[in-house]
Design brief:
The complex is a heterodimer of chains A (114) and B (114). Chain A is an all-beta fold. Helices cover 0% and strands 53% of the residues of chain A. Classes of the chains: A mainly beta (114), B mainly beta (114).
Amino acid sequence: KAGVTQTPRYLIKTRGQQVTLSCSPISGHRSVSWYQQTPGQGLQFLFEYFSETQRNKGNFPGRFSGRQFSNSRSEMNVSTLELGDSALYLCASSLTTGSNQPQHFGDGTRLSIL
Amino acid sequence: AQKVTQAQTEISVVEKEDVTLDCVYETRDTTYYLFWYKQPPSGELVFLIRRNSFDEQNEISGRYSWNFQKSTSSFNFTITASQVVDSAVYFCALVSYNTDKLIFGTGTRLQVFP
């Protein structure tokens, strides 16, 4: 069974640009969550999508947005990139939504802002 | 407020030593779940265990064991007879039924030397 797939693995952008990251969940999983990992702030929850609806959101500015498609694949978009957005962005999927669901993570997309 | 504290930033051991990773959590909710994840250098977070707040039974899985104590709000993780392949960053995480947001600790980097 294929795991969570994130593309691209690495990305370099400059300040002010925008970026879209993609996540394909494990087959059959309907919930997708996104996390940002930085050395300073650690792992922080961005948002969760379930059945194409944003179900939960962390404390990030509106420049961070996402969506989920009918096949459960998800994309995350960051607009007007800032240097501080440099991070490893991790996507996780679970069978369904709910606090008891173990999440299965992808390898992440490492985003570097110049 | 919810919080997970992993006071040990980095631990170094020699192969075959036992090592315990500490995790202390804070939550006002009575229903919550605790998780441990392993992050090898590749970046992917690997799910290790889930424990709900009503189940204080300790668990053993091969060389891994977990000690959950509600009285001290701790969920410690012990690796017995450590191996070089255990080298990774280990994260403890908490999600409460009411918030549904997975909160991670800052992680403990474990280095096992041959």
